Backbone:
């Protein structure tokens, strides 16, 4: 079980953190704060640039903490809140992501919540504390 939790935490956490770097730094094909901020402004999340940085930092911090298994409930909360906002503001057209739906966001929410509820596992920093 501990190895399975480690795999889930690493893949989910590092993917979310990388997604955050797209917003904050423009890495991995992202648009950075200005580009993401412009999009945020267009969907009513204002001020766009500030909120892009806040969202990106939530993803980076939450993702890295989740991957490390440190303060896992806090890390999961950061991921869940960010994904809920994404569903409410962007991915709300249907269930399926191919139709701008929320299926992918829901998977991330449930995985983060599941790990938070059962614990990060033996191969985590939480286990050392």
Residues:
């Amino acid at each position: 079980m501990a190895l399975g939790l480690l795999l889930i935490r690493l893949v989910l956490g590092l993917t979310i953190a990388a997604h955050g770097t797209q917003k904050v730094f423009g890495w991995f094909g992202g648009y950075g704060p200005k580009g993401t901020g412009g999009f945020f402004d267009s969907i009513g999340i204002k001020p766009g640039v500030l909120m892009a940085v806040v969202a990106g930092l939530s993803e980076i911090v939450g993702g890295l903490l989740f991957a490390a298994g440190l303060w896992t409930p806090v890390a999961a909360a950061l991921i869940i809140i960010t994904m809920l906002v994404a569903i409410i503001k962007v991915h709300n057209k249907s269930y399926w992501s191919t139709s701008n739906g929320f299926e992918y966001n829901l998977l991330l929410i449930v995985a983060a919540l599941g790990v938070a509820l059962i614990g990060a596992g033996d191969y985590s920093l939480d286990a050392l504390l």
